């Protein structure tokens, strides 16, 4: 392990973690987690289970969640300036993509802290490729708002002519497709929907919103969803 330590300079490292299948960790990510003086994470319990899976004993674990990201980001960057390696992981996927991490990066830029973002697991790219839709022109819009601005968010999808990728929770997926179905423009487009991506019970659906809504109502809805909307037929 001493040999590995010399490969990594002090710095802030944002590390993607598996979105479901725990084998989706890179060797570089595991080595960095093993040699870092501080591991900051969204949930210490979730990260603790991941580290246990790979027999990694952290030197220090710090919680860095949405509610305290501003306050702890400066602390983490200062620790880097003291010569430490600091890793940040969210509960699943790439930090900063619909997860905490953006404020941490912005703080690092402001403070002149060296930082590195590792490539790795994320839900939107596998879903896009699996959809079979064009990968030449697409956009990612994250989660629809829960309440305020939700209708405007969904209505704005009608104006997008490219492939669109978004996330939705199991608690609001039926509401989302009811709204999509009610739009003549959006109901005319084709969709690829996948849930439990990379997990044992991964499941996908294809069709327009009316067809997918029927399929979803026949399911025991669990797990977060990735929705890919094909280009508008012109």
Q: Give the C-level CATH assignment of the largest domain.
A: Alpha Beta
CATH architecture of the largest domain: 3-Layer(aba) Sandwich
Q: How many domains make up the 3D coordinates? A: 2
Q: Categorize the overall geometry.
A: elongated
- Secondary-structure content class: alpha/beta
Measured distance between first and last alpha carbons: 57 Å
- What is the tally of beta strands? 10
**Might you state the CATH topology name of the largest domain?**
Cobalt-precorrin-4 Transmethylase, domain 1
- Summed over residues and divided by their number, the pLDDT gives a mean of 93
The amount of helix comes to 25-40%
Instruction: Record the strand order, biggest sheet.
Output: 3-2-4-1-5
Written overview of the protein:
With 234 residues, this protein is an alpha/beta fold. The chain folds into two domains: 2-117, Tetrapyrrole methylase, N-terminal domain (Cobalt-precorrin-4 Transmethylase, domain 1, 3-Layer(aba) Sandwich), CATH 3.40.1010.10; 124-229, Methyltransferase, Cobalt-precorrin-4 Transmethylase, Domain 2, CATH 3.30.950.10. It is built from ten helices and ten strands. It has helices at 2-5, 27-35, 44-53, 69-81, 102-111, 124-131, 150-156, 173-182, 184-187, 209-217, and strands at 11-14, 38-41, 61-63, 85-89, 115-117, 138-140, 163-168, 191-195, 203-207, 225-229. The strands form two sheets. The chain has a five-stranded parallel beta sheet with strand order 3-2-4-1-5, with helices on both faces. The protein has a five-stranded mixed beta sheet with strand order 6-7-10-8-9, with helices on both faces. Strand 2, helix 3 and strand 3 form a beta-alpha-beta unit.
């Amino acid at each position: 392990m001493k040999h590995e330590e010399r490969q990594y300079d002090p710095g802030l490292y944002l590390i993607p973690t598996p979105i479901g299948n725990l084998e989706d960790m890179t060797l570089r990510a595991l080595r960095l987690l093993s040699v870092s003086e501080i591991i900051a994470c969204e949930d210490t319990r979730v990260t603790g289970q991941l580290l246990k899976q790979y027999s990694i004993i952290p030197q220090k674990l710090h919680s860095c969640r949405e509610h305290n990201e501003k306050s702890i980001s400066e602390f983490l960057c200062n620790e880097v300036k003291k010569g430490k390696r600091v890793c940040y992981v969210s509960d699943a996927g790439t930090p900063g993509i619909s997860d905490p991490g953006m404020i941490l990066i912005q703080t690092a830029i402001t403070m002149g802290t060296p930082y590195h973002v590792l490539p790795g697991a994320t839900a939107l790219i596998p879903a896009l490729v699996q959809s079979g839709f064009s990968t030449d022109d697409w956009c990612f819009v994250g989660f629809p708002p829960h309440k305020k601005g939700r209708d405007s968010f969904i209505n704005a999808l009608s104006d997008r002519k490219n492939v669109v990728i978004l996330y939705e929770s199991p608690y609001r997926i039926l509401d989302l497709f009811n709204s999509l179905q009610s739009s003549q423009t959006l109901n005319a487009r084709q969709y690829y929907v996948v849930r439990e991506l990379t997990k044992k019970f991964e499941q996908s659906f294809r069709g327009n919103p009316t067809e997918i809504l029927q399929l979803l109502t026949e399911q025991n809805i669990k797990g977060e969803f990735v929705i890919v909307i094909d280009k508008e037929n012109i």
